[in-house]
Amino acid sequence: MTRQPADATLAEDLLLLLFQSDSGTIAGEGTLFYPLAGAVLAELALAGRVTTTETTLGETLVAAVADRPPGDAVLRPAWDYVAEKPRGVQATLAAIGPSLRAPLLERLIERGDIGREERKALGLIRTTALVAGGTGRRAGLLDRVRDALTTPAEPEPRVAALAALISASGTLPQFHREIPWSSPVITRAKELEQGQWGAAAASEAVTRTVTATIVNNVVVALAVLPQN
Question: At residue 40, what are phi and psi to the nearest 5 degrees?
């Protein structure tokens, strides 16, 4: 099994999984910034660096846990943003998401997980295409996500969050060749979105709940986006 880099972020893993090597495109490209932002906040939640609260008006706020900033250059701006004051999750997703794709993609290219290839269109126009890298890391991640969605085995929290984010992004049907698109898979994906990760996750109820809250805000954001 391909080794997972210790410093790879959840958002990197999500972007790598959303990369479709047969077409060189990224699934859900048009609304990509919401799930990527959700992955950043979910990572901070899993590490106990942010928490969420509900206002009396029903708005969900995300706040930084004091004196627990992340060292990662992609995660730190998001923590700083909510460290200034508690922010609405929806507003936070919209604020931190648009700037994430480029640096995350560069990391994946630097790691060799995705390649960049120069081509000529019609023999004249130079274009750049994204191609599969040679590390095999996407296949390893996909195996773990597939297991989380198709087997009774209890997933690791990061894998559960990753599967939940793919589901929340609305792109899971596009994985039908790699992950069966079936009623049990759909049901399990929705359970993971809601934070139903298994018995072991009960010992991490706070981080599980915060992560599920963030994931569900991604779902809400994408659901209302076409109406904006």
Answer: -65, -50
Whole-model pTM: value is 0.92
| Alpha carbon distance 73, 183 (integer Å) | 39
Domain boundaries along the sequence of the chain: 11-222
> How do strand 25-26 and strand 50-54 relate by DSSP bridges?
unpaired
Tell me the C-alpha distance between 174 and 60, whole Å: 30
Instruction: State how far the Cα of 201 lies from the Cα of 199, in Å rounded to an integer.
Output: 5
pLDDT tens per residue across span 55-66: 988 889 999 999
Strand partners, 50: 64
Q: Which CATH number does 11-222 carry?
A: 1.10.3630.10
Task: State pLDDT tens for residues 168-197.
Answer: 999 999 999 999 999 999 999 999 999 888
The contacts of residue 224 (CB under 8 Å, 6+ apart) are none
